[in-house]
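User: quick one, fold this
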Amino acid sequence: MVALCQLKSDLKIHLVPLKNGNLMAHYAFLDENNVVVNVIVGNDEGDDFDWESHYGGVMGMTCKRTSYNTDSNTHPSKTPFRKNYATIGGIYDEERDAFIPPKEYQSWVLNEETCCWEPPIPYPSDEQYYIWDEETVSWDGPLDT
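Assistant:
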């Protein structure tokens, strides 16, 4: 069995053999600035084999495992792994050993516990819908639903 990996940056296609067809883990490929450029499904870690190094060697890039079920430093049934699931365009922070999603708004600040971007003003708690207005650095609404 093989997995198909396609990098958007150069559109090269690489076939990666999978051990016993075990598609259990996700892996992020990083560019020279630790920006996530691709995420694949691959073999689960274990069996004393370093799949990060294997996939990284095949692709000629740094490779880091990421947990599909980890979000905002929480996991539904296990210990959270690297704070967040890797997203293309996000970064891997070596010091925090964490994936940080792309920053959508300049005014938002990084929550060190979750490694997620948060607005400088909390979302209103009145059960209405709002959108963020970066120009006024405030929530705009409530919106008609």
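User: anything notable?
Assistant: Residues 69 and 75 are 6 Å apart (CA to CA).
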